[in-house]
Design a protein that fits this description.
This protein is α+β, with helices and mostly antiparallel strands. The chain folds into two domains: about 20-265, Thrombin, subunit H; about 265-375, Pdz3 Domain (Roll), CATH 2.30.42.10. It is about 15% helix and about 35% strand. It has a six-stranded antiparallel barrel. Strands 4-5-6-9-8-7 form a six-stranded antiparallel β-barrel. The protein is elongated and about 70 Å long.
Length: about 375
């Protein structure tokens, strides 16, 4: 039972707390800056680690893609170190040009609170930028600058659905203010889900790579061996080496029309936390099925709660972390069988706010069809 208790406790903490991550945006506190910040000198390119992983191929891709990458500088009003003190903090991130109309794709966390956004092109030209649209749930944003088409070289967007684990991955960005730095690695894994802050939408279907990603890389492109953008560099695993994450470019392409139309993208929300049903969990809770998702908690006032989806009275029954019985088990969503929480999350992600889905649930000994009208993710 002790092993079962530890297993269930680990499962719960994994789904509720999620994996930690560090968003790779470099923010400089005012007290850390001795004098005015100098603009980056361009073009400066640093090719790292190419001798064993592509050599001339990576050099050629860098030469082709680097002019599409921009250096993003943001300024945020801050009350640090006291509410009576008003200071300006500067931050550094990356982005890349996606068309000849001056649109630039980056991470939302790079520009989220900025009062002023400035970008520097590869040739050293500095331009004011405005935030055109946002997708906070996927940590994406589109900027726009007013520049002649001759100065704007657009990145080639690839197809992240065709990625294979083990293929070449190339990151270009501005880590720690070293502008237009390129690092190489491979696609280490696909389909990762990263939890961020409590009650914020997890980042889904992320690309994992061992290409070096550091503060300042946020918003820069991850490229394949054809020089096509396959992802937007977003985060790293804290305390780890060689574990970085990029948002797939197909996710960005899906929502680009809305962001280009100056809209903020909203995502459908179900409002549950759960764990996959296993034989050990079924034994511990008295569940009569061997597959599905066991509901651990339901967000108060959320769509699932309003539809009557039931969670245990408390997630844990004792100090050892043993899981309480009494929660619903989701067996399918719109007749699509579910085996893990990601099955539900990926299906809901394809839906729009206001859509209705039908959950087939096991409640005690009854099988019920429960319609749920999807809401909007809070705190996006």
């Amino acid at each position: 039972m002790a092993n079962l208790t530890r297993t269930v406790s680990t499962l719960i903490s994994g789904i509720i707390l999620g994996a930690g991550l560090v968003l790779t945006y470099l923010q400089w506190q005012p007290f850390a800056i001795a004098g005015p910040l100098a603009p980056p000198q361009a073009p400066i390119g640093s090719i790292v680690g190419t001798s064993d992983r592509g050599g001339q191929l990576v050099a050629n891709i860098f030469e082709q893609a680097s002019p599409t990458v921009v250096y993003v500088t943001t300024r945020v009003q801050s009350s640090y170190p006291s509410p009576s003190t008003r200071q300006i903090e500067e931050g550094v991130g990356s982005g890349f040009i996606i068309d000849d109309e001056g649109h630039i794709l980056t991470n939302n966390h790079v520009v989220a609170d900025a009062t002023d956004v400035e970008i520097t092109l590869y040739d050293g030209t500095t331009l004011q930028a405005k935030v055109t649209g946002r997708d906070p749930g996927d940590d994406l944003a589109v900027l726009q600058v007013d520049a002649s088409k001759a100065k704007l070289k657009s990145a080639k967007l690839g197809d992240s659905d065709k990625l294979q684990i083990g293929e070449l991955a190339i990151a270009i960005g501005n880590p720690l203010r070293y502008d237009h730095t390129v690092t190489t690695g491979i696609v280490s894994s696909l389909g990762r889900t990263l939890s961020t802050e409590s009650m914020r939408r997890p980042l889904q279907n992320m690309i994992q790579t061992d290409a070096a990603i550091n503060p300042g890389n946020s918003g820069g492109p991850l490229l394949n061996a054809r020089g096509e953008v396959i992802g937007i560099n977003t985060a790293v695993e804290p305390g780890a080496t060689g574990i970085g994450f990029a948002m797939p470019i197909n996710t960005a392409k899906r929502y680009l029309p809305k962001m280009l139309a100056a809209e903020t993208v909203d995502h459908a929300f179900l409002g549950i936390s759960g764990v996959p049903v296993t034989p050990l969990l079924a034994q511990a809770t008295g569940i009569s099925v061997q597959e599905g998702v066991y509901i651990v908690s339901v967000v108060a006032g959320g769509p699932a709660a309003k539809a009557g989806i039931t969670a245990p009275a408390s997630p844990h029954s004792d100090d050892q972390g043993a899981l309480s019985s009494g929660g619903d088990v989701i067996l399918s969503i719109d007749r699509n069988d579910v085996h893990k929480v990601e099955d539900i999350a990926s299906y809901v992600d394809e839906k729009a706010v206001g859509d209705t889905v039908t959950l087939k649930v096991l409640r005690e000994s009854q099988i019920l069809d429960v319609p749920v009208k999807l809401g909007s993710w809070p705190n996006q």
